[in-house]
Amino acid sequence: MKINDNTADFDTIGEEHVGTSADTPLRDDAFVLSNEEKINLIKEDVRHIMDTLGLDLTDDSLKGTPNRVAKMFVNEIFGGLNPDKKPSASTFSNKYKYGEMLVEKNITVYSTCEHHLLPIVGKAHVAYISNGSVVGLSKMNRIVDFFAKRPQVQERLTIQVVKELQKVLNTEDVACVIDAKHLCVNSRGIRDTESSTITAEFGGKFKEAGTRREFLDYIKLDTAF
Description:
Blueprint: H1 7-15, H2 35-52, H3 65-77, E1 91-93, E2 101-113, E3 119-129, E4 133-135, H4 137-148, E5 151-152, H5 154-169, E6 174-182, H6 183-186, E7 197-202, H7 209-220
Helix pairs in contact: 2-3, 4-5
């Protein structure tokens, strides 16, 4: 049987930071193992990597690293892979009849590039126009955080945030802009420490030039207190 070696193609996808799916690529058996079982397996893999690099794992500073990294992967930086951690996003009737867009800006984004497993750090700006329902402000932050806590590409993260809020609010009128630094660009490869990446997803009324411009103008407002 002939096996096609597509390693070069996969490397190109990773180096060019190309996403291949609008949904996070997960296997059907992704949640068969418990978190504790995953931690036990991952810490042995981390131990093997460190040992292969020649590190002395009997050193007091290093001996606990495999377990710390495994727990961090499962419980923290990749915790958003677990659907059980999706934030509940209760909506409320817009009884005060607020008819303009609502913007939650400068939401902190901490994510991880799925190509090199290096940090993505930036800000998200999210807006919606109510069609009769509103959502708690902190829920918008939590939705961003949930989808950020997984191996990601920024384009997918932006789309996932918009799609989730459209579903929660039952409206197409949702927008998201993310401006972030990718350490896979800043700390390796080209090592450009000044560049950042901006992605945007506009739904419903935000596809109209005037509404989109209003949203972008709100983002520019100085909100230092």
